[in-house]
Amino acid sequence: MSDSKKNTVDRRGFMGGGLRVATSIGLGGLAAVLVAKKGRAGDMVWQIDPYKCVACDQCATHCVLDISAVKCMHNFAMCGYCELCTGYFDPEPNDLNSAAENQLCPTGAIVRKFVEDPYYEYTIEEPLCIGCGKCVKGCSAFGNGSLFMQVNHDLCVNCNECAIAIACPSQAFQRVPAEKPYLLKSIEGNSTE
Questions:
Q1: H or E element in which residue 113 lies
Q2: How many CA atoms lie within 13 A of 122 on its CB side?
Q3: What is the pTM of this model?
């Protein structure tokens, strides 16, 4: 093969390789733009207004995920640390102990821990929570409402049209800015972000 043909092949190989590299860089740049766009301040995510939520059980049954992305949260500042917590216990428990037959939560997601007489602390084991809202309904009916539902954005796929939002009878689901994704309950009685 002559030197001129050898150089032509090398130039073609070089140009083809260069084109592949440029395309890869371009696609990588496009991917970076899409990732950056996802986190932009203008993005919106689904969340539950805790003051509109009626704990209807739709969050547990209508989420597109096998286990709902909606979880119970607890505002400890609002909690009374009651011995008879109506978010933890069935309204008429057999006994005030943590036996399964006395608990309101069907999965045992609420943990009761003695603090000092007569106070108990209640925490949520999030992986066990299925988003049924039974604890929220109990806490709101007889307690101070320190338990409430929120979408966990680490789990939520942020569907364009949320199936739970469509099914929500109180229209508590709304779009909120991604940079302030939680609507928390406060002692003052309004949502904080």
A1: strand 110-116
A2: 33
A3: 0.75
